[in-house]
Fold these 3 entries.
Entry 1:
Amino acid sequence: MSAVRSQLPILQVLVPLLGAVLVAFLRRGTSAFALTLVVSWILPFVAGAMLLQVLATGPISYALGGWAPPIGIEYRVDVLNAMVLMLVSTVGAVIMPFAYRSVAFELDDSKEAWFYSMYLLCLAGLLGVAVTGDAFNAFVFLEISSLSTYVLIAMGPDRRALLSAFQYLIMGTIGATFYVIGVGFLYVLTGSLNMVDIAARLATVGPDQGQAVLTALAFITVGLSLKLALFPLHAWLPNAYTYAPSWATAFLAATATKVAIYLLVRYYFSIFGVAIDIRSLPIGDFIVGLSIAAMLVASFVAVFETNLKRMLAYSSVAQIGYITLGIGLANQAGLTGGLVHIVNHALMKAALFLAVGAMFYRAYTVELKDLAGIGRKMPLTTAAFTIAGFGLVGTPGTAGFISKWYLAVGALDKGWWLLVFLIVGSSLIALVYVGRVLEVVWLREPSVEIAKVRDPPLSMMAPLIVLTIATIYFGFDTEWTAGVASTAAKSLLGGLR
Amino acid sequence: MNFDLILRIGAKLVLPFILLFALYVQFHGDYGPGGGFQAGVIAASMVILVSITFGLQNARRIAPQGMVETMVPLGVLIFASVGVAGLAMGKNFLDYSVLSGDPRHGRHLGILLVEAGVFVTVSGTMIALFYAFVERGR
Amino acid sequence: MSAVRTFIEHYNYVITILLMMAGLYIVVARGNMVKKLVGLSIFQTSVYLLYIEPGKILGATAPILDPAFKVYSNPLPHVLILTAIVVGIATVALGLALVVRINEAYGTVEEDEIFERDRDA
């Protein structure tokens, strides 16, 4: 047992990678799905075992190939990335059953196996970014996940999917290249690529090299901000989420941007924060400013969107603003709020996109005007959408409230009263765009086409219900969300210089 | 037609040496610049040259579509299996020292096998890319 | 004068940065998707140079141990950049594949014309 336990970090990447290869051999939709399902369900147990171990005994270090760090590549798991690993693998596992019918419905038979192969590759990349302790290795995993994401998006049924995948490819590659330029500066400065080692060596570089350190920080910030769609670098996101296959959108919205956010947190608090006095730089205020802009502007745009998927995509940009707000605040409550919102937003947004995917499966449309009255015909799906939607608004009793509560407390700790009002204000805008949908789907008379639909089969309903229950459950029991996030925030802030 | 003749004969003369050079680059990777990636590209260029001079049909006889599509994941599988061998022997992933009694010899063997995997995947990918682009617009 | 001197002494970095700016400019300024990919490729190539340059030590040889040599260049940047080149190739190949598909779907690879066709549709 201990033999397996010491190998957990590599299994997190190896299992989906091998799965992707085997799925590529299969080329048959159903068997590819079965294998993907098995692989997806192994991962949460691996991640869970690591999370428990990290909480009990502290960080895990794994030397790839037996080469001791900092010479070899190190996989390093602490509370923060154990939480992200747990989130990504759990969301992947929970929503997997939904894919069977949804993907078969939206994609050609010949493409199904490739879709699952690309999904597993994307999963391996995302988990790899979260598990690795090596700056360049993180770039490679980031690009593995991004390249497979472009393919997933391009598989969308509309021709505009191709265009949005291309635009995302351009933006994503610029982001990754900026990131790698920043890592290059760090490498030249320190001669190391191991994150812990970089932090230690960076603290000893001379004051005349302060400019180079700041350049590295700037490049990494911009590069990762492109990947995580921080306003105003979010231009690729709405189209990509709108035209990707429904299930892929749900998965990507819940996980892909979150992993980039994790990496940004890692750089701010575990590398630069340890080496230089990051709080004396204006970067925190800058991020707070952009986050507020994201929360208000993107929410406002979402109010006027008529396509449900696009509306939720803009809402994602706004919600990412909440997470980065917590990073910018950089105090215990604020950072906890940002980190816990990574989890809470992933659960809620996955539920919302799955609900929209289920509506598309039955009603062939995601245009709001064509979905009038669908609540009477698909009550369970629409109820799930409603509950997750209220979570997005931040209604007390849902997970979204917890994150916003912590963020508001974090803002108050800084003495920023106005910020609390802005958080509440953007929640009210969220109430408008969610409420507008609820009015149409519940209160209007169904059209002739809508009158024929009904709730989707169990394989699609089950993930939706699980995620919806999680949205409510984590609004009351916060031990495994806010509790873990608080522990992570404490250790991150404790390491700051 | 005459140019065509020169091209065909020239290609025929060059083809075996391209493959030989690919293998040289592959196995010389331990001692000098080279390795699976470069060798894979060179080997794929042979198939591409065949396709350009003798037509796609002939290239497909050398490297059928199904084989090429299998090569891409197969190389990754070879790479990963070498890594998993370390896991199975109780060491860390990609620890090649377990592959032989002498750890140094094991590491050598491990790199050779991994490079073989890289060769298979890279040449497969390059040929697959070429086929994919060449077939479009026909 | 010392600024000019630094400039000339670091001519390799000047070239790298010029390439970087040129690549990024092409990506932003051109509407043709193939040209965008060319720009992206130039941009990535400049980063390869950025990594390789500090790894080279003048008068040093390739890092294969031999009693005849004392000074070796740093091999790590080359290994990193080989990886980055693979990533770059994958990106450009995928980008071109998308352009081919876009051309089949829209009949053009000019961005403004594509937007027009989507508006009309």
Entry 2:
Amino acid sequence: MTDTIHITIDRADGSLQRLIGLVERRGFHIDGMSLSDEGAMRRVSMQVRGRDAGRCADNLGRQIDKLHGATRVGFAAATYGFQTGAAA
Amino acid sequence: MTAAAAFKETPAAAPQSGARLLVRTLERLGVEVVFGYPGGAIMPVYDALTGSGLKHILVRHEQGAAFAADAWARSTGKVGVCMATSGPGATNLITGIANAMMDSVPMVCITGNVATHLMGTDAFQEIDILGVTLPIVKHSWVVRDPADIPAVIEEAFHVAHSGRPGPVLVDLPKDVQVGMATDDYGFHYPNEAEPLDHAAIAEAEQLIRAAERPLIYVGGGVKIAGATQALRDFAERTGIPAVSTLNALGSIPTDAPGFLGMLGMHGTRAANEAVQDADLLIVFGARFDDRATGKLNAFAPQARVIHFDIDPAEIGKLRAAHVPVVGDLKAGIEALTTRVAKAPLAIDPWIIRSASAARRHAFRYDAPGEGVYAPALLNELSRAAGDRFIAACDVGQHQMWVAQHCAFSRPEAHLTSGGLGAMGYGLPAGLGAKMANPDAHVVTVSGDGSFMMNIQELATLRRYGVALKIVLLDNSSLGLVRQWQELFFEENYSEVDLSDNPDFVAVAQAFGVEAFRISRREEVSAGIQRLLNAPGPCLAHVLIDPKENVWPLVPPGKSNAEMMHDTRFEGDI
């Protein structure tokens, strides 16, 4: 299943690389991506797909939230939904 | 005019070089010590250091600088600072940065780089260190205007220390270091407190009251949040038994009633059995690391989970939480204690059962033989050093023995490369910790494999007269790998023999460090006293049985319920 995440990022050195690296490192394929100019910021729309069933887009979203200079927009708010463990 | 005089006579408002702006900003932020190593692309900064109030410690390898800054931070709660030049200087920092990232250690790493017009041209000693370190920093900056240096450095310290701490990197091209600007930056970051989630804490109280077998699972976040006393109050007032991760050891004193020890791969049987039997885990600042959980879907199979953490990304990352409580741990635990301590919990049978298991599975130190038994030595060492003890561990069997057998009365006393497991951490970490805590008994516990990875820092100890004590447990092999090869690779001992080690006593003495050797059990007590009483740096080279193993052990990929153990070394004495 593919989820679409919309993010605004600043123009600092490495910010796009940081975002893409995070998504891939956390176990997601990037199936599509667009980048547009929004003044001082840039908007990234990214279609992502977990490499296995254990990858949760909510968790990825919370990792993206930790990036400095990046803000998630247009993506369902984190709901603390879980994918593994005995209490799911 | 000398450089020192020039530094002091330059008013803060006058145009200054970027390098001097950097140094002044570090001073303003209260930095006392910087660990580093100079080189071509950071020479303006080293020029500006002269005459400043900063104490620079010249290590002998940049990895040592990063590890020393890490330990400085872990043992003080302050931000550690290290610096290096471009290219190989910067890449030599990488293991230390990754180590700090894995264990959430606040650290600011400053690197020089080639001038901006040379960046991207494969210039001499040019490395895209920002790109290389992206996965292992909390954030990073390339400064392209000297006027930005004060603001970036202030932000770097704020990011490193706030929320869940971590390392940050500031890359300074050489032309930015020499460019002139005025220091007119006046902003200071406020302390931001997340509002407490009282509804979640009320839910947590309900789960605790309903539980028959609740268990506290303490992670390294407790120490980071300054929540140690809050945790101890909660544990004491509720009576709920507790287990600890490697990085949280000391958060609850080793000898405290109800403390069952470390959980996980080399955890105690009492701790792992309690986790498997618990019907509620109260998790404070832990991340369900695989070394702690073993086979994840068999971990604490009967337990509901209350998970306190400042990092929302840790909630549900690996294990579901029935009640997530995101925010400051100290405030959260205090609020929980206030609620839960109003009325006693009906968990006496569980408390008695846990205490009985702890006694039944307690470590024993009466191993047969005449040779040095490392667990007994470490236990005696920590008790002899008392509350002033700080252990800076390397990685391997000795690291696990320290975790199992040393008594810790505070979490800052146990410095270990938990997440990354970086051999070579111990010696430079001991250096950093001893410089930050000159009155403490700081002891690096190393192995013959790990020690060789940063042995050059003996020269740094000698240069600065740092009275670090070193216990070098020498089994002439890479012991933990050898143990796994024995147990899981049909005794095919592949590339673990280190029997051609140098004479470590002679090596230490060649560096100007006092050293002695012990090989028999009867020499241990006197050796510990000699080590602790030595006025300067001192190394005890301890010969141990190469076939000694670390027990208990959860085999990789197995449940914590499937512990391998050696009953000779457990049980009531």
Entry 3:
Amino acid sequence: MDATTPYRLEATGISKSYGAISALTDVEIALKPGEVMALLGENGAGKSTIVKIISGLIVPDQGTIKIDGEEVQLHTVNASQAAGIAVVQQEFSTVGTLSVAENLALGQRGAPWWWGPRKLNQAATGILARVGLDDLDPNTLVENLSVAEMQLLEIARVLARDAKIVIFDEPTAALSDREIERVLSVVKRLAAEGRSIIYVTHRLGEVFEIADQVVIFRNGRSHPPQPVGELTVDKVVTMMIGRELGDLYPDRSAGMGDVVLEAKGLKVAGLRGEVDLQLRRGEILGLTGQLGSGTTDILKAIAGTGDVAAGTIELDGTPIEVGGRRHGIAMGIAYCSPDRKKDGIFGGISIRRNLSSPWLKRVSNLGFVNAKKEADEAASSAAQFAIDRSRMQALVGNLSGGNQQKVAVGKWLGIRPRVLLVEEPTRGVDVGARAEIYAQLRQLSDSGVGVIVSSSDTNEVLGLSDTVATYYRGAQTAKKPANQWTEPELVREVMHREE
Amino acid sequence: MTTTTTPTPQGSPTVFQERAGLRRTVDTIRTSALPILIVLVFIIASITVPQFFTVETIRAILLATSVTGIIAAGMTAVTLSGNLFSLGVTASVVLSGVVYLWTGSMTGNIFFAAFAAIVTAVLVGLVQGYIVGLGLNPVVVTLGAGAIIYGATAIVTGGEVVAASSNSLGVFATFSVFGVPLPVIVLVVFTAVAWYLTEHTTIGRNLHLLGSNKNTARNSGISPMGVTIWAFLAFSVGIGVAAVLQVSQTLQVQADNFGELTMNVVAAVLVGGTAVTGGDGSPVKSVIGALFIATITQIMVLVSIPQGVRYFVLGVVVVGLVVILHLLRKASSR
């Protein structure tokens, strides 16, 4: 690509903030036809925000976007599509009960509604061949496809729209190595056709295989684009982390005691092999891995919501039955899901009643709630998690992400937990609240509660935990005391396995 | 200890506090709008409609409210738990009414007859609650159950009118304490108990929690099946009690009676301001909704508006109010 080629997409000075929190500051992106640009960064660094801005889902506060030299307003998804931009989403947008051909026709121009199956199939075959799905019968129902085929179909849908700029948002997150190859070769082919590609990923291997340029995001700011030839894995990792483990994290464990929780030969759906796990009193165990690494499945199994096929779980040396959250709570196992809005909080309910929801029975007599006991205990939970006690009647759905997360974790104090399992403890949480949550997790651990944290944020896992175990596609790959890991090493362990 | 090294816990003030004031205003409007509206309607009707401000009219309004109100208060439990509505109200009331009149005529004991009517309603309701608890769509289940109950009642009664053997079976409707008809007293007591139970018991709380977020409820150890069954139990008790009061007034019942009851109850819950999606609401609100609907209907009866037009006007008013309430709720939550 010589220097005189005009830019296909040029975004300058893009900023976006939510209230006091800025998600993007002064981000620059410039992309030429036929180029593949990889966007890298930790969770919350700003990659998905810039993708959403370019695809018209979010309107930036500042900045200009030019396409082929002309300034455009991408304020709606339609405007973005009309400008020749297409996004291959991480989540599938296909309809399972329709055929492959019908899905390709959905929402496309050039497929009149009166076309019958034969016409649709004809149109579909050509598009499918371009994504390497030549041998797929267009009549197949989408729900019968493999994950990789669905991902390729998702790409095919975008191709049907003939876009100039194609954005891939972590297209390989849920795929196996062989399947990834298929996706990558399609991406290369698209670039060879002269399309511009923006490729968001967590996997460094892919970046070095397909990207021409790399833009690294950190704390909502972007580094200037770098040609991939001038980068090494170490350089990329350093740029992504870019900071030391600071005051954000509390001191490590003062000392570990006996074993609180032990899982032996645990076999769970989503895991490749058996998992053994040991947690000592006073220890925070950190599990980390990419999407699909299996850490979620392990915690769910211990919590009692996953399907345990084999293995035993012991609490304080006594084997416990695993079955249902109710039983898990009775055994003293607290579990915070990774998606608080979905299954961690009650948005339309007050802080107090959220906090008391798992232990209401304990402050009740014959089914009648003792309002004073409830208020007192909720207040003490709130105080411990630095939740404003004058707001106990406020609806949790109206709070900031940080306060919501404090409620989602804080509600478990009242069950007097023996083990606390926390997934993604600070996803979408501002820095101040993060520090408070870390401090509380440490304090709980010091007071004898076994704490397991699962997070895709390697910085967090390393900063908070005493022991860090990495998982990759359903199996443990390494486990060491936190002070024997360096962050680049951990990032590489998690991201770089394909080499 | 480690906590001393933490940065000062400064809760982020941000947008929350600025919006809190506005949100409170909207909330106040939302909760007080209907009572104010009812008072206004009463005042205007008293001035403009002859015969409105009389003992007979007010008595008629309250008697009508007692039946819809009691069922609506019970239905609120179902709605709160996130299970939408039961659409089999009419059929269940008729069935319980038939049981009351038959048992009463046979035994001559109105208390035993009332008990039998309530037990019948509860049994029928628990079966529906169990099926809904399995995860089936409540609208489909209760609509289907309503059809089955209606059919069964029609078969058993041969489609004939079931009449009371003596006027003594109407005592529940005619009895009054210091001039207040018994049905109105039952309504007040039933509503008060329903309110207390939903606010101050674990089951009542779990109704709110389940309706607010089923997934979180499950993760918090709340059993959707158990809570749903409790909701239908409360609803069914309301059906049984209301059925007894209703047939005590009419002293006869036929399979296709009370056709408008289901819609009136659903409208009462909606107009009262309980969220269709569950998690937010109160039996008291639903009773106020029932009072509103009974008042509007009575006024239209007094000024001799034909039935078709009455339905039309009531429908427009209900939809209008529900839309306004929905907009206010959206405004108050962000």
